[in-house]
Structure to design on (342 residues):
């Protein structure tokens, strides 16, 4: 693994400052979320393998970034950029810029990132290809009547990640609750609402590595389960993911490998790999699932370029597969270099 990507390349580790982009949460949460910390971990792993790695922030001036990449002689980019110009919806623009510069980069391309950022579009693609996913509606204005879905429902921002905009109040039991949450997202997040039938059961996720090519086919990592230790909590909210002072933070815990039957494990892998093929994923990704009382699995989201900090789920799954964190970083770099300038 190390020898495949240990050629001493000059690698620019590109990130955006979530700390600067997110202003309406506690400062300590913003610090934990900040990709500058992730960039340091990735840079250390690359340097330990003999690469000439340096960090670069994607700020408000793309021209300045281009100058820095050129002056540094960067041969490849390890792309951790999530919110260029302080906008999460511009995540795909970072790799689009790298393609215009003809620089090899890690992770997924603009098309996969753009499709998955639009939750409704992603679900339509799943449905068209036979991937099981909860029934849904997209609301661009206030509901004027019953949605034609079965309660309870979960109301999410249509274009967010990191569980932003998701709280325990996101699960609604009637039209009044639905209207309340749609209004809250419109006013607080200035976004449409994705409303889907809530699957109240076990929650899994599966990491995927590979480019979907003959040389580097997609392969799934051991599945993880989010174990809800207290029935008070019904879903992974923003607070349970990021706020260590919130009661749910310690009561929703990842277990990897998941305690699942061989049949469930095989089915999780089968669906995750199908999603990787359908969405044209490259490098690394994560597919999130819920299981209903009958044992049926439903895909909630496909997440290209998920968090790869040392304590995050992708790194945890890689370790379960026998791939320590430094080797995971080198494998992601190797996969990006294998695709070359796209």
């Amino acid at each position: 693994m190390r020898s495949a990507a240990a050629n001493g390349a000059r690698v620019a580790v590109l990130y955006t400052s979530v700390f600067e982009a997110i202003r309406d949460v506690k400062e300590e949460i913003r610090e934990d979320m900040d990709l500058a910390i992730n960039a340091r971990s990735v840079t250390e792993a690359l340097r330990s393998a003999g690469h000439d790695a340096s960090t670069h922030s994607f700020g408000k001036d793309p021209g300045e970034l281009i100058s820095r990449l050129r002056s540094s002689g960067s041969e490849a980019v390890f792309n951790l950029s999530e919110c260029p110009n302080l906008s999460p919806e511009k995540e795909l623009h970072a790799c689009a810029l790298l393609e215009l510069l003809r620089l090899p980069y890690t992770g997924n391309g603009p098309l996969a990132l753009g499709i998955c950022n639009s939750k409704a579009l992603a679900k339509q693609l799943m449905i068209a290809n036979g991937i099981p996913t909860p029934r849904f509606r997209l609301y661009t204005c206030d509901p004027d009547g019953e949605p034609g879905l079965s309660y309870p429902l979960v109301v999410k921002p249509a274009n967010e990640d990191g569980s932003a905009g998701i709280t325990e109040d996101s699960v609604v039991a009637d039209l009044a609750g639905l209207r309340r949450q749609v209004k809250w997202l419109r006013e607080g997040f200035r976004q449409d609402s994705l409303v889907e039938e809530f699957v109240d059961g076990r929650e899994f996720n599966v990491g995927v590595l590979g480019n979907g090519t003959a040389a580097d086919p997609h392969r799934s990592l051991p599945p993880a389960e989010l174990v809800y230790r207290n029935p008070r909590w019904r879903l992974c909210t923003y607070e349970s993911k990021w706020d260590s002072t919130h009661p749910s933070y310690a009561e929703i815990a990842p277990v990897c490998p998941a305690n699942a039957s061989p049949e469930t494990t095989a089915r999780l892998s089968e669906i995750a790999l199908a999603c990787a093929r359908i969405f044209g994923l490259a490098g690394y990704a994560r597919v999130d699932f819920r299981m209903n009382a009958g044992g049926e699995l439903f895909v909630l989201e496909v997440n290209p370029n998920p968090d790869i900090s040392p304590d995050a789920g992708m790194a945890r799954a890689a370790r379960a597969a026998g791939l320590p964190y430094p080797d995971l970083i080198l494998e992601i770099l190797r996969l990006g270099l294998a695709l070359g300038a796209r």
